Amino acid sequence: MRVILVRLALTLVLGLAVVSGLIRGGVLEVPNRLNPFAPLRIADNVDWLTRWKLSRLERDGEQCLAVLDGSPVSHKPVPDRASQDGCGLSNAVEVSRSSIGLSASFTATCPLTVAWALFEQHVLLPAAREHFGQEVVRVTHFGTYACRNINHRVDGRRSQHATANAIDLAGFVLASGQQITVKSDWAGGDERQKAFLRALRDGACRFFDVVLSPDYNEAHHDHFHFDMGSYRTCR
Fold this sequence. Notes:
Blueprint: H1 2-24, H2 50-56, H3 61-69, E1 74-78, E2 81-84, E3 87-89, E4 92-97, E5 101-102, E6 106-109, H4 110-132, E7 136-143, E8 166-174, E9 179-181, H5 182-188, H6 191-204, E10 210-212, E11 224-227, E12 233-234
Parallel strand pairs: 5-7, 10-12
Antiparallel strand pairs: 1-4, 2-3, 4-6, 7-8, 8-9, 8-11, 10-11
Helix pairs in contact: 3-4, 4-6, 5-6
């Protein structure tokens, strides 16, 4: 039995290697979204490969910028800043707007910005259409870069904000002018508002490594925290 299993494993590995070679060589054509070797594209339907392709960008700054160039996000690279006391910038961009307006421009790592573009196109905009029948035209945020520890604790470890690898979202403005905020509507809004905010929290977990909402702790009672750190949390 052991010999049979070994042979099956070797056959599978060999088969995967052959298929990989055919795909890389262009002999076997597969859709971009199903091709593990093709670069990520924001407009592609999200599937099980999206997260893997997104994670590759953390190790490939050039490819990450290429992905952003094909997205609706208006951006420009910013110079790396040497880390001092755990606060620095690497492979970051300045974002002025995306397909929707922003309360202010922000500086963020390229992978975080790509995750934002995916969240916006595949979660935020569809959720607004589903729950309100209209577009989101503006996002209010609390910023990305801040040289500080988690929850501002004096003896804590550095926050992902210290390297512009996190963004805090406070509210959203619909085309009608209606404002929906985490602070007022997570618990106090009507059923549509509460369902909308929870759809954003749950959907963000498809792209960001850490997603924190008011369900996490009191420190997040008025905003969502999204980051691309080394942990996985969705609450």
